[in-house]
Amino acid sequence: MHPKTPNSGKTQNSAELVQLRQGRVAANTSAPDTLPERNPGMPFDVRFLDALRRVNLSGLERRASTLTKRRSIKGDNQAAWLLRSLALMDLTTLNSNDTDERVRRLCAKALNPLSRDLRQGLGLGDTVIRPAAVCVYHPFVATAAHALRGSGVEVAAVSTAFPHGLAPLETRIREIELSVAAGATEIDVVIKRGLVFAGRWEELFEEVQAFRQACGDAHLKVILGTGDLATLRNVGLASMVAMMAGADFIKTSTGKESVNATLPVGLVMVRAIRAYHEATGIRIGFKPAGGISTAKASLDWLVLIKEELGREWLEPDLFRFGASSLLTDIERQLEHHLTGRYSAGYRHAMA
Q1: Taking the domain 25-344, which CATH number applies?
Q2: Residues with catalytic annotation?
């Protein structure tokens, strides 16, 4: 499925859903020509930070506003974009009351995210559409890995003393190693925000570099905790340092901050990704997380990525949502698309 650039106020034809019926591209896999080379990182170079020290806040807010107000995605085209949102999702449970059984139920939902009626109504046939990953705390990695074995759905583990990142470095590195050994294929680490406030960029670089080494073949997502970083300048600088140190993805938030993923913050981060790509030829992934709970919000983020980075970034290897309740609203919107009625939320239990 290949989302099109949305046209304002017009209902699109059903070409996107026709592609799904034909099963050309499984929605949770990348097209063969879009697989990105993994980021090898580079030596720390303060010159890469200089261009990011000045941020036009009013310009960013104006750009974010126009992205959501000038674009309208309707009809079959909206349904196709919502299916793309589903396929780009890290289905997440990070609660203090998580249990192995809850994680098993969440994995079962990841394997069968849409009801039989929805699949038949959308004409999906044999096309596989699943979230890209299930994201859990370390104690539940083995449970998720067992439940998802052979499915193509990745197992992501939050790590490095999530959500605060304040444990000793040796402890944080060991946590990564244990999660990888338990079956995690993706590791979401958090940075120490104090290193950003103090401008200790080289120390931050070295810590992320150590995290990358501990990950081995597992992909590294670096959570900046943007709601804690105070300024967009800090967000841009932290983004670039993480990429220089070898991050495969940069991620906005833990979901535990008072302010999580916002479009202005996303613009700063994706423009840092674009600058890094222009300088190195390496494509870095982006993951907004926290507060993305509605289908409409997911469409806003897809439009931002399409316009700022291009179609090739709308693949699970380069873009993810961190979400715990988004799938429920996507299901309700797809049911409305087919029947004209919204179903009750309890009909789409997550776990």
Answers
A1: 3.20.20.70
A2: 188, 251, 287
